[in-house]
Each structure stands twice: as structure tokens, then as C-alpha cells.
Amino acid sequence: MADFTAHPTAVIDDGAKIGAGTKIWHFSHVMGPSRIGPDCVLGQNVFVARNVSIGRNVKIQNNVSVYEGVVLEDDVFCGPSMVFTNVFNPRSFVSRKDEYRETLVRKGATIGANATVVCGVTVGRYAMVGAGSVVTRDVPEFALVHGCPARWRGWVCRCGEKLALSDGRAVCERCGGEYELSGEVLRESGGS
Q1: I need a labelling partner for 129 at 20 to 30 A (CA). Which of 34, 139, 151, 155 fits?
Q2: pLDDT in tens, 108-159
Q3: Which CATH number does the domain housing residue 43 bear?
């Protein structure tokens, strides 16, 4: 008996490795060999392609396709109908399967509903991509980006709250996390 739960309409191919406590909902398809960690939730109509790696406690909302070349680390949130790509210049009549570009979504990052992440970028740890954004370049850790194309708009705490920096430092009003800006990099400090 499997240690995960899948709705009867879900299709799980041979070779897929799925961690304990993971839930896979209606009309989803997980291809093998892909790897999904424990305690994940794949909403309705989620597609996971061959060779995809998904970490622990990842939440993928309805209507998301995670294509080959995408890596989702632990605690990532993918909002409803957000889009990943894996080929930069697709043509239906030109096979480019040997040109897939890796997209890496680091631990704790959030990608909002209907956002698009163009292949070949890294979304940094605990970054937040606003709904409807188009990500065309790397997103720094703890950065808040949104727009088309997505641009840096501020910083967010590990808990997701927007941070107000003063003299290169910030303390989250919600959780008390402490942060320090070094050049263009925000790092946790103190009690985080």
C-alpha cells in the first residue's frame, strides 16, 4: 500500500517516486521517473513531467504543469494556473528536447497565481513572485518581484510579510525575524 494519497482519477506512471503523506488530487498526472517528496499537495489537474524533482512540503495549486528541467526545493508554493517553461525559443516543427533549460525554485519561495517563469532562471530562497508576473531573470533571496516583466519591488520576510528596511536592517512586524542588507543581498541575522 502506498504511503501517499491519490484521487482515483489521478494517473501515476511507473517509476514515479512519491513521498509519504503527499496528496494528489483529481485529474493530475505524475510521470516516471519523477520524484516528489513527502507531505506535498498537488491540486486538481497538475502535471509533473519526467525527471522533475519536487522537495518536501511543496504546494502546487490547480492547473500547474511542472515540466522537465524544473526543480522545486522544499516548502515551495506554486499558485493556481502559474506557468513554467523549459525551452526558450520553441517551434512546433523543431525538436529542442536537448535544449531544456533548468529552472530552480529555491526553498520557501512563492510564485503567485497566473505568473509565468521563463526557463533558465532561479527564484531565490523565500522570494515572492506576485500574481500575473512574468519572470525573465533570476530573483534574489527574500525579494518581492511583480510586473511584466517582473521587477524588484522590495523585500519579504521568511514568513511572507513585506519588510521595511531602515539603515540596511529590518525586523519583521509579524514574526520578529531580523534581516540585514549587504550590497544587494538581504540576509537573515539575529533571531531568525
Answers
A1: 34
A2: 999 999 999 999 999 999 999 999 999 999 999 999 999 999 999 999 999 9
A3: 2.160.10.10
Q: How far apart, in whole angstroms, are the C-alpha atoms of residue 171 and residue 180?
A: 9
Alpha-carbon distance of 131 to 70, in angstroms, equals: 19
Q: Structural domain of residue 191, as residue ranges?
A: 164-192
From CA 102, how far away is CA 81, in angstroms rounded?
Answer: 20
Q: Is residue 191 pLDDT above 60, yes or no?
A: no
CA distance 185 to 52: 29
Query: Do 41 and 29 fall within a single domain?
Result: yes
Which of 104, 86, 105, 84 is CA-nearest to residue 95? Answer: 86
Co-location of 131 and 57 in the same domain:
yes
Using a pLDDT cut of 70, give the percent of the chain over it: 98
